[in-house]
Amino acid sequence: MKEKRIFVGMMVIAFCIFVLTPIVSAGPIEESNQLTQEWVKAFHEGNAEALSSLFALDGVYVSWASPFPSQGRDAIRATMAGFFRAFPIRYLILRDESRKAYGNTVTLYNHFTLIYGDGKGPTKTVYGRNSAVNTIVDGRRVILTQHSSFFPIAGP
């Protein structure tokens, strides 16, 4: 009977260690995925401060909505704040995500569907693609550069 209790006790401990223990250290791909989730959350909340803080201090964001890149967190914050003010209705769906890790640096490529509107007229739906590079800077994973664009229009 004593051996059975010891065996059951060891099984419970093993279960706790292998199943209930959270992942302590994720790899670059998992960290990059978490960074993307934080970006999407900040975007949906309209939180330009949180979104811009995900970029490196000298990060670059090239938006489909602007002819010029936003360089640095302050410019990215201003760009996103302007977009959020202009379009309080917004919903972003990412798909076809592909990540490649090169040491601590991760490249991301994905497609997106964006539904947005100003609340005064009908919402618009656009389709595009996005690429980004993120890495560890000062012990924290940040976006170095991100570029989004619409899909090309087919036809003559």
Describe the protein in words.
There is one protein chain. The chain is α+β, with helices and mostly antiparallel strands and 156 residues long. The protein has one domain: Roll (Nuclear Transport Factor 2, Chain: A), CATH 3.10.450. Helix content is 36%, strand content 40%. It has 4 helices and 6 strands. It has helices at 2-20, 28-45, 48-52, 73-86, and strands at 55-62, 70-71, 89-102, 105-117, 124-137, 140-150. The chain has a 6-stranded mixed β-sheet with strand order 2-1-6-5-4-3. Strand 5 and strand 6 form a beta hairpin. The longest helix has 19 residues, at 2-20. The chain is globular. The N and C termini lie far apart (82 Å).
List the helices and strands and how they pair.
Layout: H1 2-20, H2 28-45, H3 48-52, E1 55-62, E2 70-71, H4 73-86, E3 89-102, E4 105-117, E5 124-137, E6 140-150
Parallel strand pairs: 1-6
Antiparallel strand pairs: 1-2, 3-4, 4-5, 5-6
Overview in brief:
By secondary structure, this protein is an alpha+beta fold. 36% of the residues lie in helices and 40% in strands. A six-stranded mixed beta sheet has the order 2-1-6-5-4-3.
Number of E strands: 6
Strand proportion: 35-45%
As a percent range, the share of helical residues equals 25-40%
Which shape, going by the Cα principal axes?
Answer: globular
Run of helices and strands: HHHEEHEEEE
Largest sheet: 6 strands, mixed
Ends: how far apart?
Answer: 82 Å
Q: How does the helix and strand content classify structurally? A: alpha+beta
CATH architecture: Roll
In the CATH scheme, the class would be Alpha Beta
* Tally of discrete structural domains: 1
Average pLDDT for all residues: 88
As laid out across the biggest beta sheet, the strand order is: 2-1-6-5-4-3
CATH topology: Nuclear Transport Factor 2, Chain: A
Rounded to the nearest angstrom, the radius of gyration is: 21 Å
| Low-pLDDT ranges | 20-24
What is the count of DSSP helices, taking H or I runs of 4+ residues? 4
